[in-house]
Write a structure and sequence with these properties.
Blueprint: E1 2-7, H1 21-29, E2 34-39, H2 45-58, E3 62-68, H3 77-87, E4 95-96, E5 102-108, H4 115-122, E6 126-129, E7 143-144, H5 166-177, E8 182-184, E9 190-193, H6 218-221
Parallel strand pairs: 1-2, 1-9, 2-3, 3-5, 5-6, 7-8, 8-9
Antiparallel strand pairs: 4-5
Helix pairs in contact: 3-4
Length: about 220
């Protein structure tokens, strides 16, 4: 399955489900199965999730929540579960498993989150594929690797003596997961494109449909 990471935090200007239709139809036309809806704690989050799930259902797409732990905290496991419970029954919610009854959930970082507490709070079968480090991946149903670019092992550009490739990351996760599903930029089971609309970090494949001005990069990204 192929997913695309969608940043909900920068689309506060959308006014209806129709504002998501272009994203849904474009993504579907190129073979994307679902949007990973990256959410923080913004006031507009639930309204935009309502719109996104409605549009996804109308356009034959799927969606799932991806909790951004730059903003959420590990102490909020119950709140994470409650949010999953709210959206897990929506028609467009991605579900997997033999009976297609497990609600798919992911994160951006979040190592140390109590997944048992999340499951208990949600009160429904979950399939949790978080962006944990390989050393913490065994606690989840699978794992998501954000390492889509070579680096020096400390989230900076690689150097001649320190070059960790995307393939190195793939292998580290595959070893740690021991056969559990792996979601990464290039992977055998789940693939998540990073990203659909993170304009400010200059790694987006979707249209520039929600201009924003919350970081330095957006000053030159807008209207390009």
């Amino acid at each position: 399955m192929v997913f695309a990471h969608f940043i909900v935090g920068i689309v506060s200007d959308r006014k209806s489900a129709a504002d998501y239709d272009l994203d849904m139809t474009l993504a579907k036309s190129i073979g994307i199965d679902a949007f990973a809806l990256n959410i923080g704690l913004d006031d507009h989050t639930d309204q935009q999730l309502d719109y996104a799930y409605e549009s996804a259902a109308k356009n034959g797409m799927k969606a799932f929540l991806s909790f951004d732990f730059n903003l959420w905290r590990n102490s909020q496991a119950n709140e994470v579960g409650a949010k999953v419970k709210k959206y897990g029954t929506r028609p467009a919610q991605l579900k997997v498993g033999s009976g297609s009854n497990q609600v798919f959930v992911s994160t951006f970082i979040g190592d140390g989150l109590d997944l048992n507490a999340v499951r208990s709070s949600a009160g429904m079968p979950l399939f949790i594929v978080p962006n944990f480090q390989p050393s913490n991946a065994a606690a989840a149903d699978g794992a998501f690797n954000w390492g889509a670019w070579p680096n020096n092992g400390a989230n900076k550009a690689p150097t001649p003596d320190r070059n960790f490739t995307v393939e190195d990351g793939d292998q580290a996760y595959l070893r740690a997961l021991g056969g559990k599903p792996y979601m990464a930029p290039l992977a055998p089971q789940y693939v998540e494109i990073i990203t659909w609309n993170d304009y400010g970090e200059s790694h987006y494949i979707g249209p520039l449909s929600s201009p924003h001005y919350d970081d330095g990069n957006s000053k030159w990204v807008n209207d390009m």
